[in-house]
Amino acid sequence: MDAFITRRKRKSSPEPALQTNRTDEDDDGEDSTDVKLAMLASLHPEFDQETLLDLLLAHDGSVQATSQALSARLPPRKSVAGTVAQTSLRSFTLEHAGNSPAPGAKRTKLLSRKGATLHLYDPVDIAEHTPCTVLLNFLPADEANDLLVELLEESKTFEKITFKLFDNVVSSPHTSSFYVESYDERDQQMHEYVYNGARLTDVRKITPMLEKVKTRVGEAVNREIAERIRTRHGGKKLKYQSPKPWCPNAAFVNCYNGPQESVGWHSDQLTYLGPRAVIGSLSLGVTREFRVRRVLPKDGDNDDNTNNNTVSGADAEGQIAIHLPHNSLLVMHAEMQEEWKHSIAPAAAIDPHPVAGRRRINITYRDYREEFHPRHTPRCGCDVACVLRVVQRKRENWGRYFWMCHAGNVPGKAGCSFFQWAEFDEDGNPRFPRDSSKGSKSK
Ligand SMILES: O=C(O)CCC(=O)C(=O)O
Ligand SMILES: [Fe+2]
């Protein structure tokens, strides 16, 4: 759900000194690409997201110009999802000293290319080429089925997230709900937590099957984290990654009803998870493509193949489609949210599932950390707990985290220009200035 209510702070920040530093999960436009894409998708559902993105870029990010161009165009023929067969990449990968692994850890060169989609099915390839690992046939078959049946029933009352952007009402192209462990937490979620400037209206108490499966997900994700650190990072966790066991205590459940339902490119919000967050994502029902692409600073000098600390620009721009069948657990590792974006692409065709029909259910289990409860985090000039973001696009300050006003992301809401660099200890615990209102504030 993060993608469709994520929006950049407007350009009119009265803090010019901060403007060069400030960027977020999305491109450098005044609205996030995801919001623009969601808007275009709702106005032109006959076009796929790739076409929309291409045209949006060709029109310098202008939704209006893109929409006009689309109105004058015939929908392109779409490729059928899943038709690109891939067995294994292992036989022809190139090894090189890689991007961030510690000495001794191996890294394989990305084989994706700008403008092309590399389709991966094999968990070994997925672990090699993306910040994710996948466990197929994760649950015992009857448990997966029980969970699916339970959530299909729940999803009958899920809703699309709708929001207003300029003069248009845009709705997320799938439905969802959020589950927490107790009624007390439910109340807190609805009254204290803020998501892109708004409160969640549909928060539910965890269901029996979600609760049962949570334990298995927790164990598997912790095993995968340990394995990842051992095999990819020379036994050393990432800076700011929490050394504590990953402890799922909340879950977003998404329902994609039919091939056109999707989620746009986004990174998941770190506000309540902290830096270098890990997420456990369980897929049920119809197989869909989970796409990932790396985000690198865009100031023209990231094509440097000679530097072992960078991935070439072309490699970085390619997208990878991970095919997620029924009962597969995908772990988004600590490298993911800061450096990559993900999406569920609309599909031209799907294979119906015997129980779910045209639906895919996805559960993202998350570890909401007490240290990041809104009662602890900085509050902006509007007296609302801030959103935590990371500089993704600008080379200057790339990878630095910052707290900012949520309301700047909400169409029609003025918000304030609160900005404060976020500080953490080595283990990602926040260090707040004694007076959190120390950030720059102005109305
Ligand atoms: O459906 C999926 O696999 C991904 C969902 C997602 O990215 C999200 O809810 O943030
Ligand atoms: Fe996500």
Automatic annotation (TrEMBL):
Q: Which residues form the Fe2OG dioxygenase domain?
A: 247-369
Q: What's a single GO MF annotation on this record?
A: dioxygenase activity
Alphabetized InterPro entries for the sequence? AlkB-like, AlkB-like_sf, ALKBH3, CUE, Oxoglu/Fe-dep_dioxygenase_dom, Znf_GRF
Sorted keywords for this record are:
Metal-binding, Zinc, Zinc-finger
| Record's keyword annotation contains Zinc-finger | yes
Q: Where is the CUE domain?
A: 32-74
Residue ranges annotated as compositionally biased, kind Basic residues, are: 1-11
Give the residue ranges for region: Disordered: 1-32
Q: Where is the GRF-type domain?
A: 380-425
Q: Biological process GO terms, please?
A: DNA alkylation repair
Keyword Zinc among record annotations:
yes
PANTHER family found in the cross-reference section: ALPHA-KETOGLUTARATE-DEPENDENT DIOXYGENASE ALKB HOMOLOG 3 (PTHR31212)
Can you say what this protein is called? Uncharacterized protein
Q: Which organism is it from?
A: Echria macrotheca
